[in-house]
Amino acid sequence: MEYVDTKHKLEKLLRKHGYHQDKRPDHREWTKFFDEFSIKIRLDQNNEDGFNGFQFSFTAYMRNGLKKKQALKILELLKT
Predict the structure, then answer these.
(1) Confidence class of residue 75 from pLDDT cuts 50, 70 and 90?
(2) Which H helix or E strand runs over 76?
(3) CA 21 to chain centroid
(4) Of the candidates 68, 53, 61, which has an alpha carbon nearest to the alpha carbon of residue 33?
């Protein structure tokens, strides 16, 4: 039960911060796109005994170059 509560709390938090969920089978990532980068988070759903983490993917689109403001935003996201 604790796993379900933790998962639902995390999903609510992701939704609140503008992440969108891909609901296709085997594509349960939560994604948020910014101008020069995107973030994908996939909650671990393989542990029936409790929540044991998540996968985090960060993709930067370097073709346009990364501005100082955007680099600072990335660092801010990684600190929280």
Answers:
(1) confident
(2) helix 68-79
(3) 9
(4) 61
Q: Which helix (H) or strand (E) holds 59?
A: strand 54-60
- Domain count for the chain: 1
Which pTM does this prediction carry?
A: 0.62
Is 50 a residue whose pLDDT tops 70?
Answer: no
Q: Tokens 């005994």 appear where?
A: 49
* Alpha-carbon 17 to chain mean position: 10
Full domain range(s) for residue 32: 2-79
Report which residue type is found at 64. Answer: N
Here the tokens at position 44 are 């671990």
Query: Does 2 have pLDDT greater than 90?
Result: no
